[in-house]
Amino acid sequence: MNYKVCTKCDTNLPATTEFFHVQKRGLYNLKSNCKKCTTKYNKSKWIIVPKKTEKTCSHCKETFPLTNEYFYTKTTKAGTVVKKGCPPINKDSVSFRSVCKKCNSKQTTIREKRKLMIKYIDNPFVRKTKYDYSKGLTSMERQRICRIKNKGYDPETYDVEWKKQWLEKTKANRKYDYPDGYDVVPKSLIQKAVSDHMTDAFIANRLGFKLEDVPVDVLELKRKQLKFYRDVKNKKN
Ligand SMILES: [Zn+2]
Ligand SMILES: [Zn+2]
Predict the structure, then answer these.
(1) Does the pLDDT at position 103 exceed 90?
(2) Contacts of 88 (CB under 8 A, 6+ apart)
């Protein structure tokens, strides 16, 4: 058997692949350093990546210690392709989930509720709703339709109908008569009506006082004066 001395640690070792790595140009086709020394050298060249001790939840963006207390783990089965274009992994691998336990639980309940909803909607034996709703409506829209139908209206024409009724009501409540054709009476017309009717508030305003500060007889006097002015003006015209 041939022997070879390692140039690093000066040990005399059998010149076999058990103690030396293969190198074509070396003595006996082996490296000059023994396997132990090569490993030592390689290890000294490694860059040690510090293990992560914290993790930021991808949902709430809070950072927690990377432990079982804050994160659930998941197991990826052997044979799963983790990265596109890479060969499938050959061992089951356990890793922490990307969302924290709190967010994970919330998401799970939401998912379960959704599943229940689907079951509920598709099940024909479930308690019938008061009215038939078309599919794809949100609960808010359903509530609105229910409210309208409870009042005895058709949801399709409710907006128009409601506006019509509202107009009739406001028209009936108007203090003065206005020309037709106004849904909302312009301010200028209201002012003109108030001025024509010479309300107490209008006269107090003319005097430059608050209505409650003006005695009734003063109001009357001012009204008479205004009326006189207007009559004179009308005669001139
Ligand atoms: Zn050696
Ligand atoms: Zn979270």
Answers:
(1) yes
(2) 78, 79, 80, 81, 82
